[in-house]
Amino acid sequence: MARNLDERPSLLLLPFPPAPSSRTLLSAAYWPSLTATLTKLRNPQGAEKLIIAVACPVLHGQYLRSKSVLWSDAQALLAGIYTLVSVVCAELKIGVEVDGGPGSVDTTVILLDHDRNRRFLAESQPAIKTNSTVVVDLATFASAYHPWKSIFHVRSEPGLELFNTYLRLAEGRQTLLQSQLIPVEGGLAMNATRESSPTHPPPTPGYSVVCLGGTFDYLHPGHKLLLTAAALLLQVPDAGSPQPCQFIIGITGDELLKNKKFAEYVQPWDVRARNVILFLSLLLRISERGWKDNPLLEVEEEDGDFRASFRESAITVQCMRIQDAFGPTVTVENMDALVVSGETRSGGRAVNDRRAEKGWRCLEVFEVDVLDAGEITDGASTAENFASKISSTAIRQQRAQNIK
């Protein structure tokens, strides 16, 4: 099924982040570009979609099938950018949740493994080249992500360099009008090569089975950060492997949410699960056809759980209905890693205590940074609006007030 032009996402290409980085430096580098792009996309008549592609060297390893992720750096960068997006949207009064309605912008951040020293031969053609992680390089991104509604690029030397390289790699994938190519202002350029950084954490080995839990009600930037950070931990086998890597996501069942605030506005489990899989499809699904002629995503239902496969069945995503605080972590023995947020850190310890009682090996626990506007804004009203962008409860409350 072909997509209507207005349903296609727009793209914002962001050049290399400051290195070493902080949220203050990220704000100085990216705030003008994000503000200009989101302002232009705000549409009172309908919802818009935006993919923010950030060029950064986040992979380690010489060969494609032996790549590993600099996970600590990658998740911190994701947290910083999703924080910026939420703060900018709070100031502009733009909704950020999936299916947010008119005036909202559903934003997804994708990290592209790229550095300024990499050169693409003039005669080379863009191609799909996967590695042992879920991260793709610029050439694969140009080949697999298209067509776009609009492409925003940063008006700076590194921004124009990235944009021109992307256009060359994407040549022939989409006929673009000049009106679809939109330059936006860049912030302060404070880039350094990774080699000049004093220290950076070692790469994280990939895992065959990664687990994450949550309610995922009105999917918002906080959820997207957790899901993306967890996906980055997957050790992806070759396409067609008889043993795909597994991303198991425990999603709280409807019965456990009856006592939530504004419970009558909680989305049904199947809606929340499908939104999770659809979001992950942006990170995991790659095809030379892009999304123009792709069939609708196939989601299999088995015993009430949802399952989808990506990259020629090399990756399996399974959304499981959970009715307690532990979910599949104490019913499925074959797991390797568990991803938690700062708010659920104690839950990770409890899971391993329970697994130890059963005689099972403990899971490697990875904690994702929280979205926090404190480092980039002092305004009380902005901080309050920011909280509403990363809180399902606040989103439900706002919907309840809009109906009254």
TrEMBL record:
Gene3D superfamilies from the UniProt entry: HUPs (3.40.50.620)
GO biological process, one term: coenzyme A biosynthetic process
Protein origin, superkingdom: Eukaryota
Gene Ontology molecular function, alphabetical: dephospho-CoA kinase activity
UniProt cross-references to InterPro entries, sorted A to Z: Cyt_trans-like, Rossmann-like_a/b/a_fold
Start and end residues of each Cytidyltransferase-like domain: 212-397
Protein name: Cytidyltransferase-like domain-containing protein
